[in-house]
Amino acid sequence: MGVLLISDDRVPFSVQRVYPAIEIAMETVNTKYLNDSYALESELQVFDNVCNSRNATGFAAKLFYENHVSVFVGPACVYALEGVGRVASFWNIPVITGLGDGGQFKNKTEYSTLTRFSYCQCRLRSVFGSVLKEFGWKDLVIIYDVDDVHSNELGMTLNEGLTQEGYMPIVIKYCECSSQKIQSILQDASKHARVVILILPGDTLRMFMLAAHGLGYPQSGDYVFLDVQLFTFPGPYWGDHDWRRDDDSDAAAREAYDAILRLSLSLTEGDDWQTFCRESAEHIARSAFLFYFFPTMAGEFFIGAFHDAILHYGDALNKTLSQGGDILDGYTISRYMWNKTFIGVTGEVIIDRNGDRVTNFAILDMNMDTGHFEVVGNFLGDDLNYTHITGKHIHWPGPKGTPPANRPVCGFKGEDLECQKMVKRAKTKALDKQTPESTIIQFKCVSKHVYLHFRRLVTEKELRSMAWRIDLQHIRFRPLRADSSKVCSWSELTSTGTSADTDKQCFTNVAVYQGTRVAVKQIDVERLDISRRLLLEIKTVGHVVRMRDLQHENLARFVGLCLQPKKVYILTEYCPKGSLQDVLLNENIKLDWTFRLSLLTDVIKGMRYIHNSGLQYHGHLTSSNCVVDGRFNLKVTDFGLPDLQRHRHVSQLNNNHEFLEKLLWVAPEHLGKVGKAYLMIGVSQKGDVYSFGIILEEIILRSLPFDTCRGIIETKDILNKVMARESPPFRPKVPAQEAPAGLLLLMLQCWEESPLLRPTFEVIFKKVKALHNNRDVNLVDTLIKRLEEYASNLEDVVEERTLELIEEKKKSEMLLYQILPRCVAEQLRQGKAVVPELHDCVTIYFSDIVGFTTMSADSTPMQVVEFLNDLYSLFDSVIENYDVYKVETIGDAYMVVSGLPQQNRDSHAAEICRMALQLLVRTQTFHIRHRPQDHLLLRIGVHSGPCCAGVVGLKMPRYCLFGDTVNTASRMESTGEALKIHVSSSTKEILDKYGTFVTELRGQVKMKLMALTTIKSTVSRACQRLDVSGQGDANHLLAAEREPRVVLTDSTRD
């Protein structure tokens, strides 16, 4: 075993703590799981307290190439495990670890031989999701410390996980180097949510809670803080999450911590835990690793996890050996460990089908009487739901004593207009009852003046704060696509929506901001003035799409702007399923009219909301500006910010093809021309209706706009005809049979030449709803129906084909490994040339059957084939248990070698002779089907010496051996006697080093084309005296029954 551990006693998985437990587990495996032929031994590599992939991967390579390890134990930390897990997957070596909590390790395509015996950070999203669902919380803020490695990793994983769960968390990254004060961070968080997840070290957590107490947040009962302390461990790894510090702030901290719900691992000690603790303490006292051992599951969980990992690996190794498997096949051994349940010192250990431990979690609340956190709820890994513990109650601070509401009555900033109106009416009503009429009027005038002045101050402050502005350093860009106007395939878009590593969009670029993917549109500008007008536009857009009381499910959320020299980036919500145009142009998607009407309805709802909001119009509505999010909601995007949009139009006066295509959706009254350059002139609500009419044509024909004209006239000619305002006006041609009559009529009304004759979106909504029998058309319902009709078996088919592909790949690999040595086959698979190698000393085995020629003459060809197949199948099953390689069979000749291609020092002679002994024993009970009265007479020759090996040929390549050693081994067999193993002097000299083989000198034998050679022929003797179990060796007893033949006997085989 190659053990890779970090040397840093500040972490709970350091070599000082873990390695003694590994040694205890190794002793248990060697005693209880493995026989005397195999034993676990460890090669320890310790790297310093810097957890990085470079050092760990380098040590792993050293262990693999120099020590020939068959399994890696560790590393525990994420960054080190990344590199080791990848190379181990390439080498097909198992990796077992007691931690490795990063979410990336769920990808077992990349980490195919990794098994984790601890928790995974990726499961925290389900735990938090269950708690949020339990109390009806949807809006949340995540604050995590980027300076702390553990907090930073956990914060990023949790943000990505909750986003996948359907939440849209606001992420705030804390850094001690930042000039922003903690109170300011909490005040910013309060503008977005009342649920705050704190991923912070213990001391930093206490500072945040004291700052929250100073703001009055915990005492109000309107806030809840979620903390993560998976286990208790002294030192800086988690930090002290307790409120006590024995200082003047303890009282305030205790009161503040009442608003915390804490998430921890639910740990249950196994029956053997106390015994394990005692053995560990004793072992530590005898070892070179000295540290204080905490005899609690919470303090030493990783020690137990590594111990259980070794035991489970030993059990898998035992099963592999009992079934004749390859102990170097990491993929297969790993699968023996997966989807299994066993009892270890850390309690019940469940390894799921993906090779990860199923972990239970506990939710804790502070007992106000004791000041200690106690378990009030559980999250069971195999149930995935929050379960309240009977008799336990969460103490909610504040006067109401109830869970905080997801959202305050008047909004997070008190901006709810209806709420303000209600308060104003209540105040006015109260004053009316208490004052004369003239005083009331005067008071109202003064109050209105004061209120308006106050609102102007607030508005100016919001405008100048530029909260929407995003620093370029906070955005992680993908390379901008040069082909952003082309149409992607639906398969690409689907994979984009489901993969965490793919950023493909047809009409936009994708980046990551605050851990969340966002869509980015770039506008080139010569100069951009941050005018009041632009600030008001940005504020309006943010007001429409960010505030929960005004947010609409069919509008893409505005994130912010990034201003750079000569360019502006607009960041909006990322919708991974692609655009409406992508869906329409993909012929693989069958769209019935129910589906099409649902798409239309979502567009109409979004546009109706825009027209009724402060934005008033869209101005750039196209099918590529209608996108589908991960929940299959169609959303309208690219609206608002007209001042910026004008910059884009000016920059596109060169009339590139993409810009001209966009103009096909523009109403004739908004099309203009300067010289030969086309441009947009103004925007309006009726212009949006015209654009919607063009989208209607696209949905009906499932085509690009003006599709019937394409190929006949160019895009510029189409624009000229639309601008000419002919009678009748030039419009797309749509056959009457392509759509319901009511929809065709609506389309014609939408692109009427006179804007006054075009309907509003209120009217359009009613007409489309009437086409669906006045029932609401929902995209999700339609998609569910569509999936039931057209894709019910898609996952089964994909899974079946994938499994077939994997199985066929495994079969082809196994077949290749049976033809060529594994290391040689891997080189050929990678397209590398196999360079011939000269080996200083190997041992070669030859055997044939005495009287085979006579037997073949008296048998039919089919009988000879059946006989050889039975015999060589028996031989093949025997040699699998030894470090040997079968070179070839020619007729009745069987050739085996040890010591190449993988060198095994001087053990090659012993491996060959032990194999030969077993073959002699097995052949004595071999039954010749067509000649049951005959006994098989095997003749064996063995010789050791130098040899050259390499692959010969391109078609049906063979791994061949060359040199005098091959010829000598063949002559040793051909000049030998039946039922005897004949070894040369060179082989005998190697065997003598073991002191366990008994040989007898046969004498000089003259060989063809060779000088006289002295042959050592081995003789048998009783091995029972070496049998420590008190039982005789069945193999030897079979051999001893047929004296006086000469047989090689190994006294170590019992």
Automatic annotation (TrEMBL):
Main location per the UniProt record: membrane
Keyword GTP-binding appears in the UniProt entry: yes
Keyword hit for Transmembrane: yes
InterPro entries in the cross-refs: A/G_cyclase, A/G_cyclase_CS, ANF_lig-bd_rcpt, ANPR/GUC, Cyclic_nucleotide_synthase, Kinase-like_dom_sf, Nucleotide_cyclase, Peripla_BP_I
Domain (Guanylate cyclase) ranges: 843-973
Subcellular compartments: Membrane
GO MF term (any one): ATP binding
Pfam family membership, one: ANF_receptor
SUPFAM superfamilies, A to Z: Nucleotide cyclase (SSF55073), Periplasmic binding protein-like I (SSF53822), Protein kinase-like (PK-like) (SSF56112)
EC number: 4.6.1.2
CDD domains in alphabetical order: CHD, PBP1_NPR_GC-like
Protein kinase domain residues: 490-771
GO process terms (BP): intracellular signal transduction; receptor guanylyl cyclase signaling pathway
Membrane-topology annotation of the record: Single-pass type I membrane protein
Record field: catalytic activity: GTP = 3',5'-cyclic GMP + diphosphate
A GO cellular component entry from the record: plasma membrane
Annotated SMART domains: CYCc (SM00044)
Keywords of the record: cGMP biosynthesis, Glycoprotein, GTP-binding, Lyase, Membrane, Nucleotide-binding, Receptor, Signal, Transmembrane, Transmembrane helix
Stated family: Belongs to the adenylyl cyclase class-4/guanylyl cyclase family.
Name the UniProt record assigns to this protein: Guanylate cyclase
Native organism: Pomacea canaliculata
